[in-house]
């Protein structure tokens, strides 16, 4: 199995506070890989470090065969084109329509013609289950579930190999949340994606993840399949997964 992400001995410090101390994990091609743990354990920070939005203090992170610590700006750009990110708060630009938001990475990272970009945007809108006319609406005019789909369409704009999702179902009603889970599963199959997701949505964790990493007390308390987790002696795991769904 090919490793697409490998984090080794990662340490993260903010001022006096040590957030991660010797984190190791690896994500294989085709997996939906979840990062789970108590509030404040550093899940979002880890995701931000992997996508080069946050510096770390020690250790190394390899993504798609490249060590991200020592890349030229040209290599950074080439690497960033190969992943898409959906942040927790959607992060759509409110002054742009849904279609314009989805077009942004294409405008920024490619020299495709406007006609070509419009075609790709239309395709991505359909891919995530939005209607063609939704593209004309502004983020304030659509529901939370639609905003997540629009954010997802933007993350998929450049046909990434890797998709990063930060709590994709948070803030969604249960029906929209399950719809989003199914969308993720369908897209993984259709597009051969590898997906890394931060989540604390138990249903979503059970329904979508192949592998899970639990961060607790600055370290990886567990990495493996959900079945293997049953034998783990960890207080967070015991309380969080108390409800077997
Ligand atoms: N830029 C920063 N400067 C200082 N401290 C930070 C910064 N970013 C994160 N932290 C701290 O690092 C810790 C981990 O934060 P992070 O948001 O990664 O946690 P999390 O596991 O994603 O939490 P939650 O589940 O509540 O979203 C927190 O204590 C947070 O206050």
UniProtKB/TrEMBL annotation:
<dbReference type="GO" id="GO:0005524">
    <property type="term" value="F:ATP binding"/>
</dbReference>
<feature type="domain" description="ABC transporter">
    <location>
        <begin position="5"/>
        <end position="242"/>
    </location>
</feature>
<dbReference type="InterPro" id="IPR003593">
    <property type="entry name" value="AAA+_ATPase"/>
</dbReference>
<dbReference type="GO" id="GO:0016887">
    <property type="term" value="F:ATP hydrolysis activity"/>
</dbReference>
<keyword id="KW-0547">Nucleotide-binding</keyword>
<keyword id="KW-0067">ATP-binding</keyword>
<dbReference type="InterPro" id="IPR003439">
    <property type="entry name" value="ABC_transporter-like_ATP-bd"/>
</dbReference>
<dbReference type="InterPro" id="IPR017871">
    <property type="entry name" value="ABC_transporter-like_CS"/>
</dbReference>
<dbReference type="InterPro" id="IPR027417">
    <property type="entry name" value="P-loop_NTPase"/>
</dbReference>
<dbReference type="Pfam" id="PF00005">
    <property type="entry name" value="ABC_tran"/>
</dbReference>
<keyword id="KW-0813">Transport</keyword>
<protein>
    <submittedName>
        <fullName>ATP-binding cassette domain-containing protein</fullName>
    </submittedName>
</protein>
